[in-house]
Structure formats: C-alpha cells, structure tokens
C-alpha cells in the first residue's frame, strides 16, 4: 500500500520558516518526480514546486521563487520543501504527490498527472 505522509506544517509568523517533509512508504521515490501543491480555502489547488527524478531538476511557481527550496533524499525515501520568508498568502494546506515519467511540457503543474497524494499538512502564516 502506497502512502505519502506530509509533516512539518504549523503556525508561523510572517517572515518565518518551515520545512515540510513528505515520507513515502510502499513506493520508491527516486523513480518519480515529486510535486508540492497547496490549496487555500475557496481556491483551486495550485502547484508550488516540483523536482524531477534522475537529474533533480527543480521547478517553482513565480510567487515562491527565491523563498522555497525543494529537495529529496532518496536514501530516506523522503522529499522536502524548505519555506523561508513566509507570507500570509502562503497559508494553505500543502500536499506532496508523485509523478511518473518525465517532467516538462507543463506536466509538473497539472495535478491530474500525479499518481499518489498525501493527506496534506496545514501551513498558517499569521501574526
């Protein structure tokens, strides 16, 4: 049984940092690209970042470039999203997901391309 479990969310003040983790079981992450998505109340799910399998090419949506860093530790079967300089508009439930095959052609931003999803972790940025 495949499971992705996100952790590391919480309440943080603007300008603060959090590191989200995505731990996988029943699946070997290094065969997949890993995406992070988020969904705020009343909004559609949006892609935040993605890291390809193989060469580890990274993608970021414009609003998080320079603030967020995606990484993976294949030995631990875990992916991460380091979030710095957090803003109130980053408040959302964050999800990790796996993508089979190559990234590119916009696949990394399409949630319907992803195979497995975690349950999400809440990130709240507020003073």
Question: Can you walk through the features of this model?
Answer:
By secondary structure, the protein is mainly β. Helices cover 0% and strands 48% of the residues. The protein has no helices and 11 strands. It has strands at 3-7, 10-12, 18-25, 33-39, 46-51, 58-60, 68-73, 78-83, 92-99, 114-117, 121-125. Strands 2, 4, 5, 6, 9, 10 and 11 form a 7-stranded mixed β-sheet that branches. It has a 4-stranded antiparallel β-sheet with strand order 1-3-8-7, with no helix packed on it.
**Main sheet properties:** 7 strands, mixed
Structural class: mainly beta
Global geometry: globular
How do the SSEs run, as a string of H and E? EEEEEEEEEEE
The number of strands is: 11
- Termini separation (Å)? 40 Å
- For the residues shown, what is the average pLDDT? 96
Unreliable segments of 5+ consecutive residues = none
Radius of gyration: 13 Å
Helical percent range? under 10%
Question: Beta-strand percentage?
Answer: over 45%
Helical segment count:
0
